[in-house]
Specification:
By secondary structure, this protein is of the alpha+beta class. It has a single domain, classed as Cytochrome P450 (Cytochrome p450, Orthogonal Bundle). Helices cover 49% and strands 12% of the residues. The chain has 17 helices and 12 strands. The strands form 4 sheets. Strands 1-2-8-5-3 form a 5-stranded mixed sheet. Strands 4-12-9 form a 3-stranded antiparallel sheet. A hairpin with a 2-residue loop joins strand 1 and strand 2. The longest helix has 32 residues. Bound molecules: protoporphyrin IX containing FE (HEM).
Length: 465
């Protein structure tokens, strides 16, 4: 019987169409210089050259998908695996956890972690999110200057640690995680853009700082696992699931695998959330009428009491503000895949072992998908205005078999923290703030220093627990 051709089984191949070479490459250097100097500018310009284009990075030819429908085809075809420069480098940090594994191992790991992200669980974690959001808002004092990036990172680490790992020791060390992760992400980004192999093993101050920060992160997670193994209390969290899980052979997971899952979830769960929140606050400051609408909407629903999970369905503007901030300022801006075998993507032939890039940042700012794409317009997500095009061009959590398992967790957390902070504080930029985009594994404002002024000066600075 003849099998039906599909994206997974690409035979018979159609006539080969090689994607065009992107313009602007330099002799010998190709597109490397531009990728180093202005990666966002490079990625944004590529769609003018084609739906799928080739760029030259050092000695390699890398493919970049620029069309939202082709990105969907890429992400929905499991033959394009997690690989390429981003993931090869992230493995240094994430090991063989769910974010970096492929094939049957990935399927098994995904099934294993899924139970911690059910709607019932999210509703349960929401109580922790509410507490942590309020604790953050109550910690600030009228007139003080807040380093928003590090404050929100601490909040996000505490939420993920308390929700998924039920450990306070990790959340107490959120500052150490924040600074170590910052150093590690910088080093990984450098390695992703400029693969210089042995140079990164030289004992330079930068390399030593990177090694120390990576070791500190791994040690922290090892401590948590040891602590749990020695604990007399039974828990019902991600760590308990991992420690009780069995491979198909019946063997328990190795400590290394448990370790890699924990690192993957803490890293994925904190960095993206903190960066998204920082961008959202920045966008609201730039668009005061949107901020006023948001504060009024929250007030009309809560009447001034703290925001809760059950309020969220009645806060459509809040949801649209978060969605629009994720469109215009996506924290996760670049992803890579690798083709296992020769394959097709639309009309194009993809050779085996090709690295393929796509950029949510470039796609979500493209005028072909969004009117006035550089404008912060939360109302574009009102039901009457959303279109099929904008849905395909808006995949901040990816799609297909690697779609973010923490998407509902993240949306709930973003909404609760944002509503809690903006209802309580009016934030003003101060000298030293630098809102240029800091490019790394994620995108975030370089340094967001904001002075906090209470919206309601009558309210006491802190409410006793
Ligand atoms: C604003 C917040 C977040 C954004 C924008 C985001 C975005 C993404 C994206 C785009 C992917 C897919 C990557 C790909 O296609 O290669 C992903 C994967 C992942 N995310 Fe998230 N994420 C967020 C929050 C979270 C949270 C809160 C958690 C967990 C608590 C989480 C856990 C993960 C994991 C484990 C993966 C890997 C899944 C796999 O490969 O099967 N993320 N995330």
């Amino acid at each position: 019987m003849k099998s039906k051709p599909s994206e997974d089984t690409p035979a018979p191949l159609r006539p080969t169409t090689e994607p065009p070479l992107a313009s602007g490459g330099l002799p010998l250097l190709g597109h490397t210089w531009k990728l180093l100097r202005d990666p966002l500018g490079l990625l944004m310009g590529l769609r003018d050259d084609g739906d799928l284009v080739r760029i030259r990075v050092g000695p390699k030819t890398v493919y970049v998908v620029t069309d939202p429908a082709l990105v969907d085809s890429l992400l929905r075809n499991p033959n394009y695996v997690v690989g390429g420069p981003l993931w090869d480098n992230l493995r240094v940090l994430l090991g063989q956890g769910v974010a970096t594994s492929n094939g049957p191992v990935h399927r098994r790991q995904r099934r294993m972690i899924q139970p911690v992200f059910t709607p019932e669980r999210i509703a349960r974690y929401a109580a922790t999110m509410e507490q942590e959001a309020q604790a953050t808002a109550e910690r600030w004092r009228p007139g003080t200057v807040v380093d928003v990036g590090s404050e929100l990172f601490t909040t996000a680490v505490r939420i993920v640690a308390r929700s998924l790992l039920e450990v306070d020791s990790l959340s107490d060390r959120a500052d150490l995680i924040g600074s170590s992760l910052h150093t590690v992400f910088e080093g990984l980004y450098r390695r992703m853009i400029l693969s210089a192999g042995a140079l990164y093993r030289l004992p330079t101050p930068t390399n030593r700082r990177f090694d120390r920060a990576l070791a500190a992160l791994h040690q922290l997670v090892d401590d948590i696992i040891t602590e749990r193994r020695n604990s007399p209390y039974r828990r019902d969290d991600l760590l308990a699931i991992l420690l009780q899980a069995r491979e198909e052979s019946g063997k328990p997971l190795s400590d290394d695998e448990v370790h890699d899952h924990v690192v993957s979830l803490v890293v994925a769960g904190a960095e993206n959330v903190a960066s998204t929140l920082a961008w959202t606050l920045h966008l609201l400051i730039q668009n005061p009428h949107q901020e006023t609408r948001l504060v009024e909407e929250v007030r009309s629903v809560t009447g001034g009491r703290p925001v809760t999970f059950t309020d969220l369905p009645r806060l459509p503007h809040l949801r649209n503000v978060v969605t629009e901030a994720m469109r215009l300022r996506p924290a996760a801006w670049i992803f890579t895949r690798r083709s296992l075998a020769e394959a097709h993507l639309g009309p194009y032939r993809i050779p085996a072992c090709t690295d393929i890039i796509y950029s949510p940042y470039a796609i979500q700012r493209d005028r072909r998908s969004f009117a006035q794409p550089l404008e912060f317009d939360p109302d574009r997500w009102a039901p009457q205005r959303t279109t099929t095009v904008s849905k395909q061009a808006m995949r901040p959590f990816g799609t297909g078999n690697r779609q973010c398992p923490g998407d509902h967790f993240a949306l709930t957390e973003l909404a609760i923290i944002l509503a809690t902070i903006t209802a309580r504080w009016r934030l003003h930029p101060v000298a030293g703030t630098d809102t240029t985009t800091k490019i790394g594994i994620t995108l975030h404002p370089t340094c967001l220093l904001l002075r906090a002024e209470p919206r309601d000066p009558q309210r006491p600075a802190s409410i006793p627990a």
